[in-house]
């Protein structure tokens, strides 16, 4: 596609439920990032995939969070046993090699009630 | 570890005046520097980047940024601000294939 696609755009879930957030990067982009942004706040790095290298998971806030990227393309961020503090906008970005720039998706707004 | 600092939470400027949004960085190696803008209820949009070459980089919407290696800075500038420039601005840095690290963001408010 022409841009980074994220789904769903909005998700309301009950505390304790698991959620899956999906990111379709731009075709051919080897780098894929997940960030989290709380209301009006900065970007919190979660995880980074680069080609076939092992992902940089250093930003995942707890073991309830995990992500995978299948076939070097689509990525899924999974949050288990959601908590209210998980409520935020989850942003995905992809980029080509050599840091030519990164394109962000519109994000998934997660609300845990 | 690489890091980015945006020392101002908010910058206020009158329409028509020049604006500057500050960014300093810390990396080991050559930096790749980026500016992104986020309008209310919108995703992040790429403004400009510095990879190599000319220190003055021109980007979208009339914005430019100057890479200053000695001061480790990459300040965002625009000669004449518009009310529509009001938004949240993020500076980011990485090196090679390291993760992209963002600053905390600066809110720009342009008054009519």
Explain what this protein looks like in three dimensions.
The complex is a heterodimer of chains A (113) and B (112). Chain A is mostly beta strands and 113 residues long. Chain A is 0% helix and 48% strand. Chain A contains no helices and ten strands. Chain A has strands at residues 5-7, 10-13, 19-24, 31-37, 43-50, 65-69, 75-79, 88-95, 102-104, 108-112. In chain A, the strands form two sheets. In chain A, strands 2, 4, 5, 8, 9 and 10 form a six-stranded mixed beta sheet that branches. The relative contact order of chain A is 0.33. Chain B has 112 residues and is mostly beta strands. Chain B starts with a strand and ends with a strand. Chain B contains no helices and twelve strands. Chains A and B meet through strand 4, strand 5, strand 8 and strand 9 of A and strand 5, strand 6, strand 10 and strand 11 of B.
Provide tags for this entry:
heterodimer, A: 113 residues, mainly beta, 4-stranded antiparallel β-sheet, globular, B: 112 residues
Q: List how many beta strands of chain B DSSP finds.
A: 12
> Largest beta sheet of chain B, briefly?
6 strands, mixed
Poorly predicted runs of chain B: none
**Through-space gap between termini of chain B:** 41 Å
Instruction: Estimate the strand proportion of chain B.
Output: over 45%
Radius of gyration of chain B: 13 Å
Helix content class of chain B: under 10%
**What proportion of the residues of chain A form beta strands (DSSP E)?**
over 45%
Short description:
With 113 residues, chain A is mostly beta strands. Helices cover 0% and strands 48% of the residues of chain A.
Annotate the secondary structure layout.
The complex is a heterodimer of chains A (113) and B (112).
Chain A: E1 5-7, E2 10-13, E3 19-24, E4 31-37, E5 43-50, E6 65-69, E7 75-79, E8 88-95, E9 102-104, E10 108-112
Parallel strand pairs in A: 2-10
Antiparallel strand pairs in A: 1-3, 3-7, 4-5, 4-8, 6-7, 8-9, 8-10
Chain B: E1 3-5, E2 10-14, E3 19-21, E4 24-26, E5 32-38, E6 44-50, E7 56-58, E8 64-68, E9 73-78, E10 87-94, E11 101-102, E12 106-111
Parallel strand pairs in B: 2-12
Antiparallel strand pairs in B: 1-4, 3-9, 5-6, 5-10, 7-8, 8-9, 10-11, 10-12
